[in-house]
Amino acid sequence: MFTTIPIIILLLPLLGFVLMIFFGKKLPRQGDWLSSGLISISLLLSIYLLINKVSSHSEEMISHSFTWVLIGSGSIEIGIAIDNLAAVMLVVVTLVSTLVHFFSMGYMKDDVRYSRYYAYLGLFSFSMLGIVITNNLLLMYAAWELVGISSYLLIGHWYEKKSASNAANKAFIVNRIGDFGMFIGIMILFFSYSTFTFEAIFSSINSGQLPFGSEQWLTAAGILIFCGAVGKSAQFPLHVWLPDAMEGPTPVSALIHAATMVAAGVYLVARVFPMLTSDALLVIAYIGAITSLIAATIAITQFDIKKVLAYSTISQLGYMIMALGVGAFTAGFMHLVTHAAFKAGLFLGAGSVIYAMHESLHKAKDHHTDAQDVRNMGGLKSKMPITYITFLVFTLAISGIPFTSGFLSKDEILAGTLAFSTMNGHWILPVIGFAVAAMTALYMFRLLILTFHGKPADESIISGIKESPKVMTVPLMVLAALSLFVFYSFNPLGAASGWFYAAIEQPMSVVPELIQPASAHVFHEAVENIHGMAMIISILMAGAGVLLAFAMYQWKKVNADKLAEHAGVLYKGAFNKWYFDEFYSKAFVGGTIILTKILRWFDENIIDGIVNGSAHITKIISSISGWIDNNVVDGLVNATANTADRAGGLLSKIQTGKVQVYLVYVVFSFLVLFILFL
Amino acid sequence: MELQILGIGILTWLVFIPILGMAAVLLIPGKNENAIRWTAAVATGIQLVLAIVIFSVFDRTKIGINEAETFQFVEHFSWITVDSVPWVGRIEITYFLGLDGLSAIMVILTSLIGLIGVISSWNIKKMVKGYFALYLLLVTGMMGVFVALDFFLFFIFWEVMLLPMYFLIGLWGGPRREYAAIKFFLYTFVGGILMLLAMLALYFSVAYTDPATGQTVHTFNMLHMMNPENYIEGGLLTGVDTTWRYVAWMALFINFAIKIPLFPFHTWLPDAHVEAPTPISVILAGILLKLGTYGLLRVNFPIFPDATQYFVTFMAILGMISIIYGALCAMAQDDFKKLIAYSSISHMGIVVLGIAALNTQGMVGGVLQMFNHGIITAVLFLSVGVLYDRTHTRGLYDFGGIANQMPKYTGVAMIGMFAGLGLPGLNGFVSELFSFLGAFEAYKWITMISVTGIIFTAGYILWTVQRVYLGERPDKLKDLKDLTPREILAFTPLIILIVFLGIYPAPAIELMNTSLSFLVEFVTN
């Protein structure tokens, strides 16, 4: 029975997708209740599954596999496997998805393609759940790409806008670059082990079989698989698509580009964790650290409410990736879960604000003011109390203030990086980690203050602002509740004693001992020793960030503009997103376009030139031979004809009427021809 | 297995039903256009029914390839026999038809696309009688190539295709149709001559001793050519790894590479596609190109296993270049049809890479890719045709916002596009996956470079989708009507196959698995 539940959870959203595509428009309310109902059932089943799974205290997997195709003499098996990791992830995905389904009833009301929107949400949920429950790389890759296409469709939901379809294209293509690496990684593994299933691959590695017999190739395979995560989880250097993806409807940003899809990369790393060598993990840790730093610096300087949140997402994803890289497995995954709740909340909160702004602007017939720019907001606190309070809770959580869920996970990550540096001296990782913690508090409180506190930027707009309808605020309240510590650990200051830590254990490494990362046991000891210190620093950093934000934007003790001026190049760089887009569009996009133009020219002028040229030469030769034909040969022919006429009379004598003689002539002529032509 | 209708073998019916249709079309008065169309539809429809019968009774455990006994639905009669020609001895050309896993799937593809081509030819207005007569002749030629096992017969069918194709492009095509038609003709004609020479060389090198009469005779039987024991002493192509064998392999390869088309023999294709009317493009990309890779597998691989092994890496490199070059050239096009034409070059490159791997995965992936690409590209060319019929333009920059104007059409076109992009869940992904997996086993680096093609493919496809279907609809397109029932009829079976084989490719793979596994073994040992 437990094997059918995950499959039902998986297939319900797909059913929703199919029904909505074909019948959505004809249903009452364009079928939003159908999609939302189906995903709600998936959510309930997921919760049931999780409770059963965790309370049974067994690490036993629910698994089921079957043969997809027979090819040659081998077969390709695919299937599902649910361990605690997957069970938790199922709840995360279905929960956020359900809340977003309901929230969208308000936010997307009167949209031109309302039923289509819900259909795509279903497709996305199906694909994302596919990533979660699969037991093999093939289905993982397939679901991975499907998630990509649903993200593409949803980012481009308002495809009449060029910027939206551009963003959709960018998201898909940048992801494809990561997937290219992932695909090669999968090919290496399949080539080495003739299977796609994680279990089988791990046990082969454990028994000492390495790809191409070398440890470097195992490391390479790990890093190549990680490339997929770099794309999906928007890690440096492929992070550029995520901010643009904010062109999609805001609930989509909450579901896909904050809580679930972008976390798929983290989940992937967690899935293949046992086969990652210490070198591969180090690369992963540094990529995560660089990403979190770059994104945090950019987030401080942005004014678009969704852009700030987008960069914040990138930064937090960097945290998770870094955590997995240093070996803080449970902490990294826990941050995925807590982040899913509070970041989805932040986006939905932002959605609530944008919705209210739009309504107000619409009423005022103002079509110029940007509804997403925080400089046009301010003072929304009293107008939208529920949105404000929930937004505050999320902000506290993401800043890592004690008693929130974010504190628990972030604290463990920072302790992990610190422990890692004490073991092998990579001190730069915890330094970045703590710095980013301060920056996070700074930019999040900056955002909160600019949006909700202070005086309204434009009294006429703000006066028309109303709190969003219940269908939007209730999801916010649910997520706010889930951003408190109690859901993850009863101890507000330490996650290690909670159920989450008990349920999610770091898997054993299967790589050869020499290239293995530190074992879970050794690592935990190191973390224990350093935990107190890490906690104090992390609280101090968060506090400093919050204080600075208040000093600059609430109390105006520090002039933000002056500070920016002092920072000079640094501010300019961060404000312009460190020029990644400019560089990529010149170097790679521009380069490719020039290359395609050169190849087109080459095709039309060189290759075809040779073809046409040789045709031309043939034509010249044929006209020369035509002239010879007309003047020389025809002359001969005419002369011959005259001769033949006379010869005819002579030859008629040979016509004996005897068949045997004719046969002799035929054979004779055949011989002459044969000799002439061979 | 044998199957006869009215005492005549099913394969003969399959090949010659369109000829019967052609005869009927020629008898119908030219004014009666609908009767002509329906005759063509019925002829290709019967063909499809026969193909479905074959699919359902085909024995998936039988090998074929080089064993006459395990071919199915075999028909083998002597056809042209001339005794005691000086030096040559007895000339024997046989009417030898048969199916194995490799040809069975191609036969199904041909009959399906053949019927869909007729459906989409419904609105051809010019010289309807001549058009359908040539069309049916073309279908016979293609079907004949796929079932012929006698090289001479193979050659005849091969050449039979050439003329109708020439006229279909040259008379019913676009403004530059004559240039395109002549280019097509010359390219394939040159290829044909090379094949003729190689065929004759094989003929004179191979002699078969008839166990019944004890007489040793030269033969065009391809299966005899696959057996080294049948090569006479001192024959031009006798031996293993000789220069002449390489030369003959190369001559055949160039002929087939032109059809595929493989870089650098591809430039006839974009011109031919751009000028050809929509249904002919569908036939061209859907079936004709597959004859090239089919020929490699039917002729080059089993008759010259030595030369094949010698040249496979070279083949793989050409495949790689085609994949990337085709994709990049596609990106640079501003004509919708030309873009799809270049995408065909890129996708057929995957077939070549897959079969060049000389292992089961690559081989199965490659042949499946032939089938899948046939289906996908038919959807894509039909999609271009739908727009061209309505607007008389193919410029990518002339469109926009079609998604709102023609939602059903956009739906099917997008499925075709996404299948071409290799989206999992659609058939293109499966065959690309296996082709690459197989190729990786044989050529690590070549395959890794080839896989970059998936990035460029995503690029040109999404860019096309954006330019044509998304965005604001320009005013001049405001009167466009969505798909007609006839168009829906043409699209539906293709879309169903794209989705079905994407999720569950086993029925297609089962059909060819045995034969192809054996072919791999045969070539590599």
UniProtKB/TrEMBL annotation, chain A:
Name of this protein: NADH-quinone oxidoreductase subunit L
Compartmental location: Endomembrane system; Membrane
Membrane-protein topology: Multi-pass membrane protein
Chief place of localization: membrane
Domain NADH:quinone oxidoreductase/Mrp antiporter transmembrane stretches: 135-426
Boundaries of every NADH-Ubiquinone oxidoreductase (complex I) chain 5 N-terminal domain copy: 68-118
Database matches in NCBIfam families: NDH_I_L, PRK06590.1
Species this protein is from: Rhodohalobacter sulfatireducens
Listed transmembrane segments: 6-24, 33-51, 85-105, 117-133, 139-159, 180-205, 254-274, 280-301, 308-334, 385-407, 427-450, 471-490, 530-553, 659-677
Alphabetically ordered keywords of this record: Membrane, Transmembrane, Transmembrane helix
Top-level lineage group: Bacteria
InterPro entries attached to this UniProt entry: NADHpl_OxRdtase_5_subgr, ND/Mrp_TM, NU5C-like, Proton_antipo_N
Automatic annotation (TrEMBL), chain B:
Superkingdom classification of source: Bacteria
Pfam families: Proton_antipo_M
UniProt-listed InterPro entries: NADH_Q_OxRdtase_chainM/4, NADH_UbQ_OxRdtase, ND/Mrp_TM
Membrane topology: Multi-pass membrane protein
Location of the protein in the cell: Endomembrane system; Membrane
Annotated TM spans: 6-28, 35-58, 93-119, 131-149, 155-172, 184-204, 246-265, 277-297, 309-332, 339-358, 370-388, 409-430, 442-463, 488-506
Start and end residues of each NADH:quinone oxidoreductase/Mrp antiporter transmembrane domain: 148-457
Keywords: Membrane, Transmembrane, Transmembrane helix
Family annotation (PANTHER family): NADH-UBIQUINONE OXIDOREDUCTASE CHAIN 4 (PTHR43507)
Annotated family: Belongs to the complex I subunit 4 family.
Record-given protein name: NADH-quinone oxidoreductase subunit M
